Amino acid sequence: MHKNIGDQRNNWNSLLLSSVNMITLTAALMAGIASVNGHGGDSITAVKITSTVLLTSATSIGALMSKIQPSQLAEEQRNATRLFKKLRIELESFLRENEEVNEEDVKEAIQRVLALDKAYPLPLIGTMLEKFPEEFKPATWWPENKQRNPKTGLAKGWSQELEMEMREVVRVVKSRDAEEYEKLGNVMLKVNRFLAISGPVLTGISAVSSVVIGQDSGLAGIVAMTCASLAAIVNTLEHGGQVGMVFEMYRNSGGFFSLLEETVKSTENRENGDVFETKVALKLGRSLSELRDLAKRSNLSLVKANEFASKLF
């Protein structure tokens, strides 16, 4: 379902963008014709009315696209599809490895499904994620209150050195990777907000200007054509460039680092230490030796200014 909805919303983005730009540029052309022949009688009046109607429609469609951000909606569902597949694999693996499943295991699985469904909702009305929050916040697709097993000392492959290594890795992730994506996310949020407002405003100005074309001055026609052309450019930058999708990618990446940090803190005395170290290294795109070297340099404050924990993104 998430995959199908994601494909649908990706089609929305391309089809609506093509439609609104075609409407806008057609209306701009008609405004130009009306401006050249400002006193041409009923035929020019019809051209003016048509131009105004088209520009008003373009304003409405552009405002709707800016509100729902189809490219971001599509990226949300792509992430949901990937994470649901990952969750299914993890649950199947758990069932293969454990002959008995207790009530707590079932509750935890249900909580994970519900948290993921809440993080990436399917409906648009009532549950759609806020596309322009006050500030950037990483995506959260896991339960807030996870069941944690009691600590069992340094068993299962854990040692003081490994605990120190994981703490240093988390420190680098938090201070470098997560901070960088938060900064980029805030920049992209501001850019997207500016473009989302500019497009409908420009087409709205163009629509108003087209109404007064032919009244003693050619200025109205110039304004109508210029604003309509600029609106088409802005729409192309925003939706053709899929700025909303890029913002959602930053949200998802920030969530990945938050989950990694939480997993390290909650799992260090529960999962086999050697296996967990390997998993962390793979998630960050590093070998075990590179991960250990990063932790050592972090402990000595020798991490390079442009170095991040993750080599994948």
From TrEMBL:
Keywords: Membrane, Transmembrane, Transmembrane helix. The keyword Protease does not apply. The chain crosses the membrane at residues 12-34, 46-65, 194-213, 219-237. Pfam families: Chloroplast_duf. It comes from the Eukaryota. This is F-box protein. The lineage of its organism: Eukaryota, Viridiplantae, Streptophyta, Embryophyta, Tracheophyta. InterPro entries: Chloroplast_duf.
